[in-house]
Amino acid sequence: MQEDRKQQSIGQSRYYLDALDQASRLATLDRPVLILGERGSGKELMAHRTHFLSPRWEEPFIKVNCAALSETLVESTLFGHEAGSFTGAIRSQPGYFERVGEGTLFLDEIATLSLRIQEKLLRVLEYGEFERLGGQKTLVTRGRIIGATHGNLHSMAEKGEFRNDLLDRIAFDVIHTPPLRVREDDILLLAEHFAVSFVRQLDWDFFPGFSEVVQQQLLQYSWPGNIRELKNVVERSLFRCKNPEEPISEINLDPFQSPWKNTKINAANDVDLVKRKIQESEKSQKIIQETIPEKISEESLRDFKGRRENWEKQQILAAMELAQHHQGRAASILGLSYDQFRVLWRRFN
Ligand SMILES: Nc1ncnc2c1ncn2[C@@H]1O[C@H](COP(=O)(O)OP(=O)(O)O)[C@@H](O)[C@H]1O
Ligand SMILES: [Mg+2]
């Protein structure tokens, strides 16, 4: 827990500051909170923050990953059990709702709770009441609940997989942790933060920075795994770096990519080959048909601008496909600067 207290929340982009602000305001209010966001977008850190800014900050912060436990284990972990209530329950044990005291219980991956446990949780949220597994005595908890999930609770509720009444009760207010791709101002800030921390572990004298190309790559990538993915990418690139004196000039966004796959990508940089590939593709056949009229007449040449735009759009899409949606690579396939490419990409996208 000490470790967690020290963990810094980095970020200055508008969406992130809005979410932080909301967490700070909710912290002081004694209500349950729901945190929604993509994986790796900082839900757990946001829950910590909400706890440490609340009047409960000196009380325990307990995290339960509901997805990692079987139904019985979640149940006994949360509510506790009496001896003999299930096979292996030799001694009676208090659950987290008792042990948390007046602290915060963070239920991560709350969408994975079974309907039966959701019902018990609803009772805790409404009346603070529960019983240990196999127990008769009704106990009362004073802990605060913060739930989090990357799932879509609304659509789960529509399908009957998540209780509507629980959703209403736990979502007194919802904090949305923004995905990293909309936090453009924060990408390099976070990358540098993770790099500096990792440099200490590697025992380097200093962090030499990222090269311009790497910075562009970091900014262009869409980060489906968000901050967790960024941290891994940065640490991996430092770990693999052979010359710690020079700015980091290589990053590997996909460690699963086969080293031999690169040969194909390099070959794809050969402009002639790429042109041939584009022409071979079905898409190009269509473009040619659409952009070069069969019979040239005044009528067929009239919408020059429209046809040119259509052609450009198709070329850009084809290049993006070849570049596996990497904008920098697509730009170089087309022989455009990154900025020129971005202008066209924004126009057509
Ligand atoms: N604002 C931030 N500043 C620094 N590190 C962060 C920030 N948000 C998240 N992290 C780090 O990113 C990783 C993923 O965050 P986490 O809270 O576990 O995400 P989630 O619970 O949404 O999957 C963790 O290592 C966490 O410490
Ligand atoms: Mg998490």
Summarize the structure in words.
The chain is of the alpha/beta class and 349 residues long. It has three domains: 2-178, P-loop containing nucleotide triphosphate hydrolases (Rossmann fold); 181-240, Helicase, Ruva Protein, domain 3, CATH 1.10.8.60; 261-348, no CATH class. The chain is 52% helix and 9% strand. It contains 18 helices and nine strands. The protein has helices at residues 2-6, 14-27, 43-52, 71-79, 96-99, 115-127, 153-158, 164-170, 184-202, 212-220, 226-240, 261-268, 271-280, 282-291, 298-301, 304-322, 327-333, 338-348; strands spanning 33-37, 61-65, 80-81, 93-94, 104-108, 129-130, 139-140, 144-149, 174-177. The strands form three sheets. It has a five-stranded parallel beta sheet with strand order 2-5-8-1-9, sandwiched between helices. A two-stranded antiparallel ribbon has the order 3-4. The chain has a two-stranded antiparallel sheet with strand order 6-7. The longest helix has 19 residues, at 184-202. The radius of gyration is 27 Å and the shape is elongated. Bound molecules: adenosine-5'-diphosphate and magnesium ion (MG). The site of magnesium ion has 3 residues, from helix 3.
